[in-house]
Amino acid sequence: MLSSWDDFPVHQIAEPVRHVQTSDRNFYDRYYFNLHASSDELFMVMGMGQYPNLGVQDAFMVVQCDGRHRVLRASRELGDRMDTSVGPIRIEVVKPLDELRLIVEKNEHGIACDLLWKGAIPAWEEPRQYIRKHGRVLFDTCRFAQTGYWSGSLVVGDKHYDVTPDTWKGTRDRSWGVRPVGEPEAAGIRGSEGQMTGMWNYSPMQFDDHSIIYILNETDGGERKLEEAVRVWNDPDKEPDWLGTPQYQHVLTPGTRMIEKSVIKFPDAPEGGFEVSAQPLTHCFVCVGTGYGMEEDWRHGMYQGELVVQGLDMDHDEVGGLGQFGVVDHVARFEYEGKTGFGLHEHGFFGEFSKYGMDDPYSGSKSDEEK
Q1: C-alpha closest to that of 47 among 144, 155, 173, 181
Q2: Architecture of the domain whose range is 25-176+196-356
Q3: Could you tell me which of 179, 243, 177, 247 has the C-alpha nearest to residue 216?
Q4: HSE of 179 in the Cβ direction (CA atoms, 13 Å)?
Q5: pLDDT tens across 173-220, in order?
Q6: Contact 280, 78 (CB under 8 A)
Q7: b/e map of 78-114 (b: 16 or more CB within 10 Å)?
Q8: The pTM is what?
Q9: C-alpha span between 317 and 300 (Å, rounded)
Q10: For residues 99 and 28, what is the distance between their CA atoms, to the nearest angstrom?
Q11: Does residue 99 contact residue 117 with C-beta atoms inside 8 Å?
Q12: Under DSSP, is residue 356 helix (H, G, I), strand (E, B) or coil?
């Protein structure tokens, strides 16, 4: 079980790096990136994960453009944990916490790229997420986030995009710890209850000289399992501003779980409260075909064999019927106090969320007249 990492002084426990501290099957270690042109032209989301206790490493790319939902996904047996490649997809760390390279070699499934990521703000350590249900730890994760710029080239189908940092921006994160992965387990006492419940809302907003990072997981009963509101400046010598307890106001399309627009409020900001308007431009149903648990045959950490590479090409609107019940990633325009920025406006409504008229796990929102 020795690997190249074992020649570096990075050990945390009395084991080779291939082994993690816990034997929990759900331990994971992964990358997430998204890319957009500060417009409704295209949205791409990418992820790569290692699952040391399942012996699997996998990756995906999903692109929404021209009314199509395209997915490239790959899975292999986990070997040297320093090898961040799966089939045609690989990640290179050029300058830790600042520059990374994302490469997808030309393949039969119509998505390829050679892209360089450059951080706009210093990598930001987010609050630890810890959820225990019926005695078992379901979430115990650490994560850092960063807004930034892209440059390079991207091919989707028969279209070639020259990606330049003036308009092509995005968000990335690195997270690791314990959360549900792999093949589904017997529900037991949890029954039909989902792993995460209520509303999940995550918006890293990128402006010219700063970013705002807003996170909220709120249950149907109003309990906040996780929250964050902070303004991080591009200048690493400038102290971040803690913005206090965030509030929100979403407008959903009646009969669906889709957000049309939002206002995110920071009434306790140190120099006076303010509100940010969020207007989604286009969206990607990131949970469909990528491994987030909506298909029985392909889940993050699920063993597929020595190496498997697959592609999917589906109608974007048809995907929405299922995709709206998972996490939905929007490219959004954010505005406040004369400033305009772009970024990720991510949401998910899991199970009941009566504030917006979702009275059971399968219903859509209700209009004010219907409530």
Answers
A1: 173
A2: Beta Barrel (2.40)
A3: 247
A4: 22
A5: 999 999 999 888 888 887 777 678 899 999 999 999 999 999 999 999
A6: no
A7: beebeebbbbbbbbeeeeeeeebebbbeeeebbbbbe
A8: 0.95
A9: 24
A10: 22
A11: yes
A12: helix
